[in-house]
């Protein structure tokens, strides 16, 4: 071979001095057919592997990985917050004669579904009169000293006389049997004080219900309520689909009923449906766009290779990622179109260089391609610092895709490209006059100023709202709105969870927290408001006995019996009441007595250990107060939307700071190593600062609030925008700059196709990614193509 090498017939390039790359490039060219066959075999194997991969639609992959957040999510997943399915039932013909019987029939069919563990349509064996009597027996244990205001008039003759008169009226009034059954044990109605607390407790049960024939009904009695429990995890899309399919089949068997279903599983399925649809739509859009660009812009079929390669790279990266990662999420796959738009950029620059300057142009373009790709990969590498599993998945997926595209675009694809040919000319001047340059920079300065102001005025606190991740169909929200309009419960309360080995172990802290919060927190509700600890019950009994001395009981008995005898009551009619005042024989066997166990399911959860629950109105003010109190109780924590948003927000902001710092340092080190000159460094960073700030202006103009996913997408824009800056600022001649501008324009178009396809997405996460990327890419391209040459002209 000597010192002369013919790389291939198509390239026909001669070298006086050979290097290892030239030899390797020549080797690939000579064996390209065999390598092409091997490549397609690998693609086929990848498709087989991908078909067997289970993709998850679990929102938790997009949330920070922290013990506190995991604790809250585990509680939600293992409590009524996630396993409850509610059904609002009414008759379509407004004739509700058979509503309750049909509700029972519907309930019976639900019980036969394997994934449904329990169905409740009301309260069986509920005897209100017995409840009052049993509560009365516990008064010496339940009444604290602060409740003794009930006894303030007990020694007044007129008070006793009035009570005797009321008892007679009650006895002779039709419809008052409810009170009559308990007047012998509670003639003064002291149990009403406890019953009022019970009524407040019942408001924490979730829905506004009344009882009719022991069934849950609304206040109009036109709707009945059925509540089911399921073993299907909220985040398990496969089981959710089986569950909802079975429920819908049952609903179809009741054509006379209008049944509205509300549960979290509908959100899981709807989000999955939307994401799958978005992936399908964006894939079609990007594919058609690439074909149109190839046929009408490049007008050559060999350009097809640079557009097809990213899709094959995506297939290979999913294939490889499936071995590296424990699971793959739909959110990662939904990002595939964007990765395709990013990855094709490098092929476009190399293809343009090949068509204009052949192998020499290709080799000269390799350095800026590596700088650009390394900067973009560096941004994705920074995602590994994050505690969000989804970001790490995206990093693995993206880095593999970019590496495959860059390597194959450099050493493999050129062997299938034709020799030099005309590239469509883009009517964008590579150099403008000084006056035009000054005008461009003034215009840039004005836009940059408003962009910075928009960024400063952005509300970053709203970026932590977890509802932004829910992209369910409108029909899901409409059915929930209809349900809550009848039953209430739309505003979910926050929960304070107090852990212990058992109820007795957890109750002391539970009671102390309750005593500190019950008068200071709006909507606060706890079983400890009504039921003191056993230790406190003992104190209450002692205080009760000290208050009701034998003399005091004797005086009250004497006065009261004289007044009641006048109305025909017998002397022994109220013996049970006076025995109660003596308070003998009361025991402290169980923390929650049998009479109050109907509330236990709502306030006590057994999840590995015992969890006692308190409820409150989920507001920032309440959250702040409770958080300060719970610092003294390490076994207690808050679970609420405010708490989740606050915790997620703190963690995401911390992650973003670390990611941004790492990505910025990576980019700075990279451009300093490769570019070195301060002027070139400044110019290469110009599109970065312009694009990131302009995104906030675009969001402001479109009235889109900043979200966590937008903030993380900005990190990706950092890498993308640097590509434009590096390529155009590195052009060392007017001719090279023209070639680079042409390539940058095609690169921008392909990136816009990938990102722009997401503008057609229905899911808010994917749509917000699209808006962010499109606005960032436009700003980066325009600032690189127009502002960099303008700065070069002015700074000469």
From TrEMBL:
Keyword set for this entry? Answer: Membrane, Transmembrane, Transmembrane helix
Signal peptide, first to last residue: none
Q: Carries keyword Cytoplasm?
A: no
Recorded GO CC terms = plasma membrane
Keyword rRNA-binding listed? The answer is: no
InterPro entries named in the record: Mycobact_MmpL
Which sequence ranges are marked TM in the entry?
Answer: 33-51, 279-297, 304-324, 330-348, 369-388, 394-417, 438-456, 659-675, 682-702, 708-728, 740-761, 767-791
Q: What is this protein called?
A: Predicted exporter
């Amino acid at each position: 071979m000597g010192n002369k090498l013919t790389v291939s017939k198509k390239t026909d390039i001669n070298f006086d001095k050979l290097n290892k790359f030239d030899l390797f490039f020549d080797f690939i060219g000579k064996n390209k057919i065999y390598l092409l066959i091997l490549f397609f075999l690998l693609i086929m194997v990848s498709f087989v592997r991908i078909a067997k991969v289970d993709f998850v639609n679990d929102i938790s992959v997009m949330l920070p990985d922290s013990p506190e957040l995991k604790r809250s999510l585990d509680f939600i997943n293992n409590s009524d917050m996630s396993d409850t399915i509610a059904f609002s039932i009414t008759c379509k013909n407004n004739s509700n004669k058979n509503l309750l019987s049909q509700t029972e029939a519907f309930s019976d069919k639900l019980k036969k579904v394997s994934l449904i563990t329990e169905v409740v349509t009301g309260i069986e064996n509920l005897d209100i009169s017995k409840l009052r009597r049993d509560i009365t027996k516990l008064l010496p244990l339940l009444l604290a000293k602060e409740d003794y205001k009930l006894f303030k008039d007990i020694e007044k003759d007129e008070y006793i006389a009035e009570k005797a008169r009321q008892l007679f009226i009650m006895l002779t009034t039709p419809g008052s049997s409810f009170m009559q059954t308990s007047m012998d044990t509670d003639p003064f109605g002291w149990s009403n004080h406890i019953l009022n607390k019970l009524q407040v407790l019942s408001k924490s049960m979730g829905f506004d219900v009344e009882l009719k024939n022991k069934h849950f009904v609304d206040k109009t009695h036109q709707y009945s309520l059925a509540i089911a429990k399921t073993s299907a995890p909220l985040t398990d899309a496969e089981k959710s689909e089986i569950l909802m399919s079975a429920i819908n089949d049952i609903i179809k068997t009741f054509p006379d009923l209008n049944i509205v279903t509300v549960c979290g599983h509908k959100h899981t399925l709807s989000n999955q449906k939307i994401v799958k649809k978005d992936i399908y739509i964006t894939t079609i859009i990007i594919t058609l766009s690439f074909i149109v660009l190839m046929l009408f812009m490049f007008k050559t079929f060999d350009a097809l290779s640079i557009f097809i390669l990213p899709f094959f790279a995506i297939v290979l990266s999913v294939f490889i990622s499936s071995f590296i990662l424990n699971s793959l999420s739909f959110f990662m796959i939904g990002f595939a179109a964007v990765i395709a738009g990013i990855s094709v950029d490098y092929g476009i620059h190399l293809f343009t260089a090949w068509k204009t300057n052949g192998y020499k142009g290709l080799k000269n373009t390799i350095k800026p391609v590596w700088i650009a790709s390394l900067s973009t990969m560096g941004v994705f590498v920074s995602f590994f610092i994050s505690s969000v599993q989804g970001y790490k998945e995206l990093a693995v997926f993206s880095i593999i895709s970019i590496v495959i595209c860059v390597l194959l675009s450099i050493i493999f694809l050129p062997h299938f490209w034709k020799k030099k040919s005309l590239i469509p000319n883009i009517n964008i001047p590579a150099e403008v006059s000084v006056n035009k340059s000054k005008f461009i920079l003034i215009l840039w300065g004005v836009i940059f100023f408003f962009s910075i102001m928009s960024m400063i005025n952005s509300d970053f606190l709203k970026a932590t709202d977890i509802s932004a991740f829910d992209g369910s169909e409108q029909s899901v929200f409409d059915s929930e709105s209809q349900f809550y309009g009848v039953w209430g419960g739309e505003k979910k309360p926050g929960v304070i969870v107090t852990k212990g080995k058992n109820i007795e172990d957890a109750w002391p802290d539970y009671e102390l927290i309750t005593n500190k919060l019950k008068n200071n927190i709006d909507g606060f509700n706890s079983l400890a408001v009504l039921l003191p600890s056993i230790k406190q019950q003992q104190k209450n009994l002692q205080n009760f006995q000290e208050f009701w001395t034998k003399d005091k009981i004797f005086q009250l008995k004497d006065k009261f019996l004289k007044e009641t005898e006048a109305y025909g009551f017998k002397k022994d009619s109220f013996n049970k009441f006076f025995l109660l005042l003596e308070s003998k024989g009361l025991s402290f066997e169980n923390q929650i007595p049998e009479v109050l166990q109907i509330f236990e399911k709502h306030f006590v959860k057994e999840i590995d250990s015992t969890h006692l629950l308190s409820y409150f109105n989920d507001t920032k003010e309440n959250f702040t107060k409770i958080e300060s109190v719970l610092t003294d109780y390490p076994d207690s924590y808050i679970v609420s939307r405010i708490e989740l948003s606050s915790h997620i927000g703190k963690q995401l902001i911390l992650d973003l700071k670390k990611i941004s710092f790492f990505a910025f340092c990576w980019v700075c080190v990279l451009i300093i190593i490769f570019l070195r000159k301060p002027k070139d460094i400044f110019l290469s960073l110009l599109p970065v600062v312009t694009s990131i700030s302009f995104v906030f202006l675009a969001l402001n103009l479109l009235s889109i609030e900043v979200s966590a996913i937008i903030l993380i997408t900005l990190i990706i824009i950092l890498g993308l925008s640097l590509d434009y800056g590096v390529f155009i600022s590195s052009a060392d001649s007017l001719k090279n700059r023209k070639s680079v501008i042409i390539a940058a324009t095609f690169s921008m178009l392909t990136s816009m196709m990938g990102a722009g396809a997401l503008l057609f997405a229905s899911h808010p996460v994917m749509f917000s990614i699209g808006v962010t990327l499109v606005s960032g890419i436009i700003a980066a391209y325009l600032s690189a193509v127009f502002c960099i040459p303008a700065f070069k002209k002015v700074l000469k």
